[in-house]
Amino acid sequence: MPLPKAELHLHIEGTLEPELAFELAARNGVELPYTDTEALREAYRFEDLQSFLNLYYELMAVLRTERDFADLADAYLARAAAQGVRHAEIFFDPQAHLARGVGMGTVVDGLWRALGRSEEVHGVSTRLILCFLRDESAESALETLDAAKPYLDRITGVGLDSAEVGHPPAKFREVYEAAAALGLRRVAHAGEEGPPEYITEALDVLGVERVDHGLRCMEDPALVERLARERIPLTLCPLSNVRLRTVDVLAEHPLPAMLDAGLLCTVNSDDPAYFGGYAGDNFDAVRTSLGLSEERLRELARNSFVASFLEDDEERRAR
Ligand code: ES4
Ligand code: ZN
Fold this sequence. Notes:
alpha/beta; TIM Barrel; 17 helices; about 50% helix; about 15% strand; binds 6-chloro-9H-purine; binds zinc ion
């Protein structure tokens, strides 16, 4: 039996497996620039975050209807459940869809078809987190939050993703203030490729409760001390870090040092269709390559519930 765990860093568009991409392409009459799933998998050799994002945005062209988003989320939830995931806080990137003429309603209603019955069907509770693309303008983020207003009953929080370097968190101060005023929870990617200063800015300017990745905090001992003292959760994604070459090899991942420093770390999958595995695969990989003890692995699973947006009583029931 896999350890019961919560997945806190998961881009739903990053769960698009090649087989489903081709199925949706055929269903929607979309031409993909790859002959078959094998040719597509060949393209999964990334140099850095941007080279991955290029493919990630390209393949989204196959997602067009509510049914497509429902099928995508349902396939993810089934895989996650099989790997011990009991709760999933799921990112989505509305701007990438709005730009292609796919409306906010199509995305949220489609995802909700699967999420809304996930506890019953898969035994996985869910939350939805709307991410702003940081390489788009601050105005576009504000417009996106506005477009989401009719759907806020199904959206728990906001996040910040896409190309990090050159797009510091402070660019999004206004939209995060507006999100907070609407009662939304706040997280942001920071310190994946960007410097430790972006982590501090996400905390102090955007008011985030949780940092996605946060890996590069290790370059700043004072920041590590602060994150540990304030119990700020970090949602680490070990297989993603290797595939995007943030870390050379898994055996050199700083996770053990981060745990030793007292950081509230969690292990997550990011974009599992692209990076070689789902939440359980990430746990297995760190168990094997980093030699973490069973006690450390249980700590990581426990942290995932502590760091989640579940209420205390829900949290106890989930784990
Ligand atoms: C992402 Cl790995 C990663 N980093 C930043 N933004 C993203 N969007 C999807 N995956
Ligand atoms: Zn991510």
